[in-house]
Amino acid sequence: MKQLSDSLLIQSYHKALELNLSDEFINQITQEIRNRSIQHLLDKYVTHVG
């Protein structure tokens, strides 16, 4: 996950939710988002795409 850009990580998170992937996988993505302190990009992505 560390090789993914912030933007791609956020996109992956939303796609994982959309595809209803495993909670474990979504939790791994969420943890990496927290580690990078980029939670604010979650809302920005939803606003920008939606």
Automatic annotation (TrEMBL):
One of its GO terms (molecular function) is protein kinase inhibitor activity. Keywords: Protein kinase inhibitor. It holds the Pfam family Sda. Gene3D superfamilies: Sporulation inhibitor A. InterPro entries: Sda (IPR015064), Sda_sf (IPR036916). This is Sporulation histidine kinase inhibitor Sda. It comes from Halobacillus yeomjeoni.
